[in-house]
Here is the input.
Amino acid sequence: MDYNLYIFASGSFLLLGFSIHMLFTNIGNTYLNKLLASMMLMRGLQMIYFIAVNTEQTLIVSVLFNSLGPFLFVFGAFLYLYVRGFIRDESRLQKKDLIHFMPFLFAFIDSIPWYLLDAATRADFISDMITHRAFFIKNTFVIFPYHTTSLIRNGLLLTYFILVWRIVLRTGIIKNRRNNPVLTNWILFFVVITTLSNLNLLVNSFINIFIGSTASNLFLSNFRVFIQSTILLGFLGYLFYNPKVLYGFVFVSKEYAVPGKLAVIETVDLKQEEELLENQQTEILANSRKQTPTIHEEEIDRLKAQMISIMETEQPFLNPDFSLGDLAYQMSLPQHHCSYILNEYVGKNFREWVNEHRVNFFIEHYPSLINTQTIVSIALASGFKNKNTFYSAFEKVTGQKPSQYFGK
Here is the structure.
């Protein structure tokens, strides 16, 4: 087995392991978990099939050859539904989305004649496939011609990739990736790596259609394997360099809940979080009063203006983890100086002040985003850690619930 197959074997077992883990976990958004697990399972089995063909494992090839085919017709649908569901905070399949799975029925019907062949004929086909190192071969036992099914399958995959990139670009998550770096990094990483790997598979399929999968084309086959192995090696290398990109999306645990629509990955008790923040603010305020800074009025006016400028120009409040320590660091001041100025001259503690900016940001951007995003997703993009904190802060700032404020 050459190094390409070693890489394929490693990648396939990783994908299968991740998919089994996600299929049986009940943490986070189980709908998105199962969509992602299904895609990983399909690609993992496809890679095992490839390894079986190249290592002449007749039994594995015969099991996967026709049974895997129909599922590949809906890989693009799973990808589109996952990306759309992730961005729009969907937690279940809609009835209208069942149309995306119609190609599976078409491919399944097309594969029925294979199971009606006698064992000797099937064995001959499998032997021919192993000889030619082909995922599909030109055959006469199916209902529709090989070229037709391949073009339909590849056309569907291309169409879904266009839809995926369209929804990614239209939602503006690339432009606003600093607002939710962990979540945005994951969905962009997933879409890019999936696009690259599937483009190579599309090239492979088109070569089989227009040139043919014969022994004379083994050089092209090996070259395609090299490209796919390079993509997979880059994928694994990136994961070793930045494993956190998987936390909450593939590595799903109680500490890292899977988000829906660019949502929160931290699972926290809201009451505990509120109490902790209140205690921190009380402690800082108490310390600031015990150690009242000796700052001239002119200097206080300058520092207050600097605080306001930072919030308006740099918008650090969009980071859900923005803290008093971060503000103090930006201003090169002790934390209790910042807390003193906010409490005595702005009239709000740090948390109230930051949440007010987040609420104002939400109000400003709500009209232009509500047609493509949910209220919760806009709130998360405004810097809130979860929907409960948002609703509490919104009502405290405006005196109304969002639905009342916007007249809904």
